[in-house]
Specification:
Elements (H helix, E strand, L loop, with lengths): L18 H6 L2 H10 L2 E4 L4 E4 L2 H9 L4 E2 L6 H6 L10 H7 L7 H26 L6 H17 L6 H15 L6 H27 L5 H5 L6 H14 L2 H15 L2 H9 L3 H12 L6 E5 L3 E3 L2 E3 L4 E4 L1 H4 L34 H19 L4 E2 L6 E3 L5 E4 L2 E2 L2
Parallel strand pairs: 2-7
Antiparallel strand pairs: 1-2, 3-4, 4-7, 5-6, 8-11, 9-10
Helix pairs in contact: 6-7, 6-16, 7-8, 7-12, 8-9, 8-11, 12-14, 12-16, 14-16
The chain binds protoporphyrin IX containing FE (HEM).
Organism: Kocuria oceani
Protein name: Cytochrome P450
InterPro entries: Cyt_P450, Cyt_P450_B, Cyt_P450_CS, Cyt_P450_sf
Length: 397
């Protein structure tokens, strides 16, 4: 009998990819890569980049072949060994330790009122700054940081601390150049987080609330794991709601016909949120490691290969979506990969949906009439591992 399965091929190299090009605008690069092969060895990134939807989906669902526990991980050095870099069953112990804090019922019964209060504070601050204020830094960033501060249970820190901790530790996870100053800032933040946790755990054990640290204070989880998981959550739970909130508003302001329909029908806020994270995945790439020699979508990969699962590219795969480069709130729904999948599916998905689509968007659209971008000072979007707006002055009537 003859086999109809195509022969596996060696992995092609994409030596034309550069980090500055990826940072500026990765999408033309992803288009070319996806058209050529599902996975490439990319010397500039020192990883195999997986850009095809089916291949990314396979990796997410098959932790036995593709491990999250990467060797020589910079994230482990910067933040410690968190659940994000563990496989089951060790991963599950840490994930379960987060209890009910991030679940839809707790969000509805407890967090939504707190998100609304925080939204009031920071939207009022944006309005007080007046037209010309920066939507990202004067509103979306402090709003996301204050929500995360309270979810974590850092009653001894400020939202500004959360922003500094998050950015400096993220810079550590990307410090491939081994810059000692980047390590020094990341280590300072890491020590500050340790001290804040040490102070909060006994306090929250006596005065429980709905926060992550409160739940953890009465659990038999080693302190080392609590510290690493909280650092990962500070790094992974702040930039993404900030970035998706700014990207949705940018997308709607540059697509006025869709903005008009979303303003008419609040039921479309969630559709706009899902389309925004499909179109520009706030986390564009995350790592995995090949456990033993394998074949992925017809491409041979060696044991130990360090993969970049490029969900920012998979989310624009034309085999899944028609006209995938276009922002379209009304496109037929298909499962996107912006929140990952499998065991590591984002634990904060419902927090992000509620705080952005349910609380922030309706207020922004109702309270800033005539909201518009500044043609003299245009917005800037940037990044590929994390992507979002980095500059977005806005005006309103
Ligand atoms: C739009 C917003 C968000 C996006 C797009 C996003 C995306 C992701 C992705 C892609 C992963 C999986 C990464 C991997 O498998 O390596 C992840 C994991 C995670 N996210 Fe989010 N995230 C968002 C918001 C949040 C928020 C607000 C929180 C916390 C309040 C959070 C907490 C976590 C945690 C704890 C994990 C690790 C889950 C595990 O390893 O089991 N995320 N997120």
């Amino acid at each position: 009998m003859t086999s109809t399965a195509p022969e596996a091929v060696d992995c092609p190299t994409a030596d034309w990819v550069t980090i500055p090009d990826l940072y500026r605008d990765p999408f033309p690069i992803y288009r070319r890569m996806r058209a050529e092969a599902p996975v490439h060895w990319v010397p500039a990134v020192n990883r195999y980049m997986v850009t095809d939807y089916a291949a990314c989906h396979t990796i997410e669902q098959d932790a036995e072949r593709f491990s999250a526990d990467e060797t020589d991980s910079l994230m482990k050095r910067s933040m410690g060994h968190s659940m994000l870099r563990k496989d089951d069953p060790e991963h599950k112990v840490d994930r379960d330790s987060y209890g009910a804090t991030l679940r839809p019922k707790t969000i509805k019964q407890h967090w939504n009122a707190i998100f609304a209060t925080n939204n009031r504070t920071y939207l009022d601050e944006l309005k007080a700054k007046g037209p010309g204020a920066d939507f990202v830094w004067d509103y979306a960033a402090p709003y996301a940081a204050e929500n995360l501060r309270l979810i974590c249970g850092f009653h001894n820190a400020t939202q500004q601390d959360l922003q500094r901790w998050s950015q400096t530790m993220i810079d550590g996870t990307g410090n491939y150049a081994d810059d000692p100053e980047v390590w020094a800032r990341s280590e300072t933040s890491s020590a500050e987080v340790d001290a804040a946790i040490d102070e909060m755990l006994p306090h929250l054990a006596q005065n429980p609330d709905h926060s992550l640290l409160s739940g953890l204070s009465s659990m038999p989880i080693p302190l080392e794991a609590i510290r690493a998981n909280l650092k990962m959550t500070i790094g992974g739970g702040l930039n993404e709601p900030r970035d998706v909130l700014s990207t949705i508003v940018w997308a709607l302001l540059t697509h006025p016909e869709q903005l008009h329909k979303v303003q008419q029908d609040p039921a479309l806020h969630l559709a706009a949120f899902e389309e925004s994270v499909r179109w520009v995945a706030p986390i564009g790439m995350y790592p995995r490691q090949v456990v033993a020699d394998t074949v992925l979508e017809g491409v041979r990969l060696p044991a130990g290969a360090r993969l970049g699962v490029v969900i920012g590219a998979a989310n624009r795969d034309p085999r899944i979506w028609d006209d995938p480069e276009t922002f379209d709130v009304f496109r037929p729904k298909r499962p996107h990969l912006a929140f990952g999948g499998g065991a590591h599916f984002c634990a904060g998905t419902w927090v992000a949906r509620a705080s952005v689509a349910q609380i922030a968007m309706p207020a922004v659209l109702a309270e800033l009439p005539g909201l518009r971008l500044d043609p003299q000072d245009p917005p800037v979007d940037a990044g590929w591992v994390f992507r979002g707006m980095v500059h977005m002055p806005v005006h309103w009537d």
